[in-house]
Design brief:
The complex is a heterodimer. By secondary structure, chain A is mainly alpha-helical. Chain A has helices at 2-5, 14-31, 41-69, 96-119, 126-145, 149-167, 174-205, 210-215, 221-238, 246-249, 256-265, 270-277, 279-283, 286-307, 313-334, 337-357, 361-365, 374-377, 380-387, 392-423, 443-463, 471-491, 493-507; strands at 73-83, 86-94. Chain A is 72% helix and 4% strand. Classes of the chains: A mainly alpha, B mainly alpha.
Chain lengths: 508, 481
């Protein structure tokens, strides 16, 4: 039995790959026009479910092996690319943390896929939904199992893209696409942090591997702080901690099962997971831990306070989720990582179930939701604050979006009035030579080229004997004229005789 | 073995000369047979060549004029073999597309075969006197080809070409005689002269090199000695332009590499100046090409620009640069051949070389459109075409020697892209269409053959690189590179 399990850590790459395969097959079916109508739905759903189940079973088997023989640890499967001293490897880190979280997430993923098959029956974007869901399942497993930051970042981005696509699932509605964009852009801020962390790690540590990033104690505090801050930024954005919180409330436009798996259960915990993964690094920089605690506490307050006044079930759930997640951040900040891990797994499972039930909640509860507490109702200022969610949306719009827009406008003006004419635009050029109307130049480089070519052409005309008033030709013509005269003279008998005689004189 | 290669086309020319002129199809078939035979024989020689073996192979020598010390010596190394293959291929193309020669087909085929023979002689001669004889022998068929079969300005172009090259080769002859005199041993054999030349003091070497360079620079051509080229290329009939641009120019570069073997100290001393000349040639040719609306003139000037890269590669005197030079010689031969082929066919149909007289070929003549686009993109040196490999090698080699100055190459490439894309834009993209009969089957075959060679060398340059590697090493070792 054990013998059979032992080679499994070597094929752990199958865990993220299986959903990816389902994605490819389903995508090909859609592209080839094979996926339309009711008849095609079961196959799509079944393929996705089988892939998700395959991932789950594989992880369970590896868990069993880990329980019996200890965790497999860091496995390098292959080299992705190498450039100088840096290597991007396909490596996986299988330890207690990654295996437990990945198993929970795979289980949730499989259940959600099964649930979605009925929930989305006869929806217009049925196949699209499953394709994106598979993308997400693959991405999240990359994040959780990756042995290095680079591979994790690939998964991180896959999750981001999948989240964007599912928020904008009902792309016909402008609100949905606007919210999708909002969530995506906010998350890009976190991605910048992730990249920053990776870049610093590459420069200072020469490696992207988690064990190296985490285990290197030789790093100075300042360097460690910068690396940690980069990843903390990524985690805050992904887990919607302050100041990034507003996006998650707007991310619920997608179909309910997707909300469950993204914002209720799995993706919202990715930031927490990243912090747990980097816990030894964070331990080196207590001030960053303090920051985490503070932001976590603030977010908890924010989520609790706003949650009090929510009137629809999904919003109420999302603020509850946010509250729990920020508690995990507080726990991490205080160093209680085991607690945070356990909290993460249990909260993910519980919240997935709650979110999936959300559409039937009214029926289940059988009564109206509780009104906001009296002390809040009586204080209009506090109440407005809660309803408006502290105007964070508005603040970010005023502070970031407006100035960016204005700046972009100015740059655009600059480009239109100065840069475009300077560089030259197609179809606007003037011909330096009126005889050759097709040879046209515009912009500074073009004019420079035209002027240079003018000079060179003049030189060329002189160099070539082909005329157009070239000096060489004039000289040659004059010389030719002299020779012609000489020849004419020589042709006359008297000069011919003279020449012959002269020759004889010379010979003699 | 090489004797057969050199004299087989002469035999063919003699045979065609006695065939009846009234049957052009028969003449074409005979010429094709000999051109094919020459290519097949050259390919066979290439299989016999051992890339890792001695520098000069298939060497044969017999005293020619024992008193003077000249030999009838033939032999090939990797570089000359590459050139021989290119010559055989382009001659085949030149014959292949001349199927519908309107008049004086017999004269044309005879002269082309004679020219091929002379060029083979130049590339395989292992004796400077023999080299000089073949060098001059190329002039005669070319003179008549341009003078008899060329465009409206043909007389002037032919005379111009003849005088320029003859003027250059007079200097070369004097330099060779000087070298013969200065070097001990009094032999014209390349190996002997190289040995003698290397031991000469620097100023003697410089003097001799100046003479040789004058001859080679006219042929290559290097600005400011390029005066013959635009006129000759424009006026020559298109198949002859293919040979002129594809092969004749390479004789200059090839001679320069041989001169580098003979006079290494002079090369080392003038290295930087050669690079300056190369960069000037490249920009000068490029800018003037950009200015031309006459398609043939444009390609003619672009040849100057591309040969500038070859000269730059030679000037680096290191393995990478020299490899780049040789590769670029082959690549430019193929690309310029394809360009002149296309332009020649277009000219045959429209009797105009002015870009303004052409419209979009896309709808009416898609094959033309495809090959025009392909040829111009290959001439830019797009990755995946043979030119890219050559340019990158020359660039890297030059970078090792002169660093940031190589940015000028980038500028040259940019200008090259500007004029090439102008033509592509006009002919190969949508726009006002023009009526044109599409390419015939033989024409397609010729163009496809060249295009295939360009792509194959672009994606799989290893065979050619392996072929020239040994010979390039021999040259580069003289300079400690």
């Amino acid at each position: 039995m054990i013998e059979l399990l032992r080679p499994l850590p070597e094929v752990v790459w199958l865990v993220p790959l299986l959903p990816l395969l389902a994605l490819i097959v389903n995508g090909a079916r859609v592209l080839l026009g094979r996926a339309s109508g009711d008849a095609a739905e079961p196959l799509t759903a079944r393929l996705s479910a089988v892939a998700a189940l395959g991932s789950l079973l594989l992880l369970l088997a590896i868990d069993l092996l880990a329980l019996l023989e200890g965790v497999p640890g860091h496995r390098v499967i292959g080299v992705w690319f190498g450039s100088g001293p840096w290597q991007g490897t396909l490596s996986f880190l299988l330890d207690g943390l990654s295996l437990s979280v990945a198993t929970v997430c795979a289980a949730i993923g499989w259940l959600v896929v099964r649930f979605s098959a009925n929930y989305l029956h006869r929806e217009a974007g049925f196949h699209r939904y499953f394709i994106v869901l598979c993308l997400f399942l693959s991405g999240i497993q990359f994040v959780l199992l990756a042995g290095n930051g680079l591979l994790a970042f690939v998964g991180w981005e896959m999750c981001g893209v999948a989240s964007f696509l599912l928020i904008g699932y009902a792309w016909q509605r402008p609100v949905a696409t606007g919210n999708a964009l909002f969530a995506f852009v906010t998350n890009r801020g976190g991605d910048a942090g992730f990249l920053l962390g990776l870049g610093f790690a590459a420069v200072w540590l020469g490696s992207f591997e988690w064990p190296v990033i985490v285990g290197d104690n030789s790093l100075g505090v300042a360097s460690a702080r910068l690396i940690a801050l980069g990843f903390v930024l990524a985690a805050l954005a992904k887990s919607a901690q302050l100041p990034f919180s507003p996006w998650i409330a707007r991310a619920l436009e997608g179909p309910t099962p997707s909300s469950a798996v993204f914002y209720g259960a799995v993706m919202v915990h990715a930031g927490v997971y990243l912090m747990l993964r980097l816990e030894p690094l964070l331990a080196q920089v207590p001030d960053v831990l303090l920051l985490l605690t503070a932001l976590g506490a603030l977010t908890a307050f924010y989520a609790w306070f706003c949650g009090l006044v929510q009137t629809d079930v999904k919003s109420a759930l999302i603020f509850a989720t946010l509250f729990q997640v920020s508690l995990m951040f507080v726990a991490i900040g205080l160093g209680w990582t085991t607690l945070a891990t356990v909290h993460l797994c249990m909260h993910a499972a519980w919240r997935a179930w709650q979110f999936l039930l959300a559409p039937s909640w009214l029926v289940l509860a059988g009564q109206r939701p509780a009104p906001p507490p009296a002390w809040l109702r009586d204080k209009p200022v506090l109440y407005t604050l809660a309803v408006q969610r502290f105007w964070l949306d508005k603040v970010s719009y005023e502070l970031l979006v407006q100035p960016t827009n204005a700046f972009a406008r100015d740059v655009r003006n600059l480009e239109e009035h100065f840069l475009d004419p300077a560089i030259g635009e197609p179809g606007k050029g003037r011909a330096p030579d009126p005889e050759r109307p097709l040879v046209r130049a515009d912009g500074l480089p073009g004019r420079l080229l035209a002027a240079t070519s003018d000079v060179l052409q003049r030189i060329e005309n002189r160099l070539l004997l082909q005329g157009r008033g070239g000096t060489a030709e004039r000289i040659l013509k004059r010389l030719g004229g002299y020779l012609q005269t000489l020849e004419n003279l020589l042709e006359q008998p008297r000069y011919l005789m003279l020449a012959v005689m002269a020759t004889f004189v010379v010979i003699l | 073995m090489l004797k057969i290669l050199v004299f087989m086309p002469v035999f063919g020319a003699a045979l065609i000369a006695v065939l009846p002129a009234s049957r052009p199809a028969l003449l074409w078939r005979a010429a094709m047979a000999f051109a094919l035979a020459a290519l097949a024989y050259a390919l066979w020689l290439a299989t016999q060549f051992d890339a890792g073996g001695p520098a000069i192979q298939m060497f044969e020598s017999r005293a020619w004029n024992a008193r003077l010390g000249s030999h009838f010596a033939l032999g090939v190394d990797g570089i000359s073999l590459a050139m021989v293959l290119l010559t055989a291929l382009l001659t085949l193309i030149a014959v292949l597309i001349s199927r519908r020669m309107e008049n004086s087909a017999r004269l044309y085929f005879v002269l082309v075969l004679l020219l091929e023979s002379a060029i083979f002689g130049v590339f395989t001669a292992r004796d400077w006197s023999l080299f000089y004889v073949f060098w001059e022998a190329t002039l005669i068929p070319l003179f008549f080809l341009i003078e008899r079969l060329g465009g409206p300005n043909r007389q002037r172009a032919a005379l111009n070409f003849f005088l320029y090259t003859l003027g250059g080769s007079v200097f070369m002859l004097v330099a060779l005689l000087f070298l013969y005199d200065a070097a001990p041993g009094h032999s014209f054999a390349m190996a002997d002269m190289a040995e003698g030349g290397r031991s000469l003091p620097l100023h003697t070497q410089l003097l001799i090199f100046a003479g040789l360079f004058a001859g080679f620079a006219v042929k290559m051509p290097v600005v400011p000695l390029h005066g013959w080229l635009p006129l000759a290329h424009v006026e020559a009939p298109s198949p002859v332009s293919i040979l002129l641009s594809g092969v004749l120019l390479k004789m200059g570069a090839y001679g320069l590499i041989r001169a580098a073997e003979t006079l290494p100290a002079a090369l080392l001393a003038t290295q930087d100046w050669l690079a300056v000349l190369a960069l000037v040639s490249m920009l000068y040719g490029g800018i003037l090409a950009w200015r031309q609306q006459d398609l043939k003139a444009m390609i003619a000037y672009s040849s100057i620009s591309h040969m500038g890269i070859v000269l730059l590669g030679i000037a680096t005197l290191n393995v990478t640069g020299l490899t780049g030079a040789v590769f670029q010689m082959v690549a430019h031969g193929l690309a310029a051949g394809l360009l002149f082929l296309i332009i020649g066919l277009l000219y045959q149909r429209t009797h105009s070389r002015d870009l303004a007289d052409y419209g979009a070929l896309l709808g009416r003549a898609p094959r033309f459109a495809f090959f025009t686009g392909f040829a111009f993109l290959a001439a830019i040196g797009l990755p995946g075409s043979a030119g890219f490999i050559g340019e990158v090698h020359a660039l890297i080699g030059g970078f090792g020697r002169w660093g940031g100055w190589m940015l000028i190459i980038g500028l040259g490439m940019l200008i090259g892209a500007a004029y090439s894309l102008r033509v592509v834009n006009r002919l190969c993209l949508r726009g006002p269409a023009m009526e044109l009969a599409d390419m015939k089957r033989t024409e397609m075959a010729a163009a496809a053959l060249l295009a295939a060679c360009i792509v194959v060398l672009g994606f799989w340059p290893a065979p050619l690189l392996a072929l020239v590697a040994g010979s390039v090493d021999v040259v580069a070792r003289l300079f400690g590179g």
